[in-house]
Amino acid sequence: MEKGNFTDGEKYSGVFEQRRCSDSLTRGMEGHLKYLIAFNSFLSVVAFLGNTLVLVALRKETSLHPPSKLLLRCLAATDLCVGLITEPLNVNYWVSLLKEDWNTCLYAYKACFITSYILSSVSLLTITAISVDRLLALLLGLRYKLIVTLKRTYATVITFWFVSTAAATLYLLNHLITFLYGYIFIPSCIFISICSYTKIFFTLRHHRTRAQENVSDGIPGRARNLARHRRAVISALWVQLALVACYIPYGVVGVFLSNSKLTPSKFFFLEVTISSVYLNSSLNPFLYFWKISEVRNAVKTTLDKFLLIYAVNKSTFSVTERRKDI
Fold first, then answer.
1. Chain centroid to CA 73: how far?
2. 49-55 contacts: CB < 8 A, separation 24 or more?
3. Could you tell me the CA-to-CA distances from 56 to 136, 291, 299 in Å, in that order?
4. Cα–Cα distance between 54 and 83 in angstroms, integer?
5. Cα 4 from Cα 18, distance rounded (Å)
6. Residue 191 scores a pLDDT above 80
7. What would the pLDDT profile of 29-87 be if each residue is shown by its tens digit?
8. d(CA 194, CA 153)
9. Can you tell me the distance from the alpha carbon of 203 to that of 206, in angstroms, rounded to the nearest whole number?
10. Which long-range contacts (CB under 8 A, 24 or more apart) does 259-263 make?
11. CB distance 82 to 117 below 8 Å
12. Which of 88, 145, 181, 196 is the least buried, fewest Cβ under 10 Å from its Cβ?
């Protein structure tokens, strides 16, 4: 029996890869896997630093509606945890494969799977909540701030983390429960997001037509509000599309490999698609900076403060050194 292997009949369902710890998976792929380790180590640093900067910048940002800011901070927090926890665990899993350390391999894989599942679930739920939040902001108008409160948003975010953690940890008892949760919540989130953005753009088109009539009558305020809301919706849509684009390769490859034997080349290709999932956590801070003006301004202000503090400290240190020389 292969070291660390599980029974041949035990396979992941759907998009999930087979859980294996065996030297047969890396045979002939050692060099490729080392490059993958280096690339993911780089992604881990970028995700950690980028999302830390976003969270620090958003801390004192006041122009965003608090519930919307909380959802954005939740998304940035999950991406930060990917860079700080999940990617190092996955790198540790690959290193243990190369070193043939099967005990470490098994525990690193389990920990990586559970944390990845939790964070991916929370990210997808949060992205879906952002699409619903943008729809409610459009439909409710002045009632939006009365209905979508910070307290209710906190309760929603806590529920996301609780449900995702419960579904992932149940894997240790019965992996079928975890897979069933994935089969239900992934299509549900995608369906809700599609419906939300479809409704948003149809509503915006209807309101834009009416707003143009108001502008011709000398009432430009409605048109400006719609333009501002449209920019916010497009920014949220960019973040959602980036997540889908990074997750699709893993989902497609997982489906094709779910019923086939995992060879070294297939294993490496599957791990590359996992890296594309992690890439999303490194891309998001750049998307926030590019597409969300409030985040861009907050990040610029934060960086200016850091640079000012650094310049002052450097100047103080130089003066102190010169006095010592005197």
1. 11
2. 49/83, 50/79, 50/282, 50/284, 50/285, 50/286, 51/76, 51/77, 51/79, 51/80, 51/83, 51/281, 51/284, 51/285, 52/80, 53/285, 53/299, 53/302, 53/303, 54/285, 54/288, 54/295, 54/299, 55/80
3. 27, 18, 8
4. 14
5. 13
6. yes
7. 888 899 999 999 999 999 999 999 999 888 877 778 889 899 999 999 999 999 999 99
8. 21
9. 5
10. 259/11, 262/17, 262/18, 262/20, 262/25
11. no
12. 145
- State the greatest distance between any 2 C-alpha atoms of the chain, in Å, as a whole number: 81
- Please report the DSSP string for 170-220 in residue order: GGGT-HHHHHHHHHHHHHHHHHHHHHHHHHHHHHHHHHHHHHHHHHHTT--
318, burial (CB in 10 Å: exposed 0-12, middle 13-18, buried 19+): exposed
Residue 3 to residue 106: CA distance in whole angstroms: 11
Q: Are 82 and 247 in contact (CB under 8 A)?
A: no
Euclidean distance between CA atoms 181 and 191, whole angstroms: 15
Q: For residue 72, what are its two tokens? A: 């954005």
CB 190 within 8 A of CB 196: no
DSSP 239-290: HHHHHHHHHHHHHHHHHHHTTS---HHHHHHHHHHHHHHHHHHHHHHHHHHH
Terminal-to-terminal C-alpha distance of the chain:
75
Give the model confidence (pLDDT) of 220-233 as tens digits.
Answer: 556 666 777 778 88
The overall pTM is greater than 0.85 = no
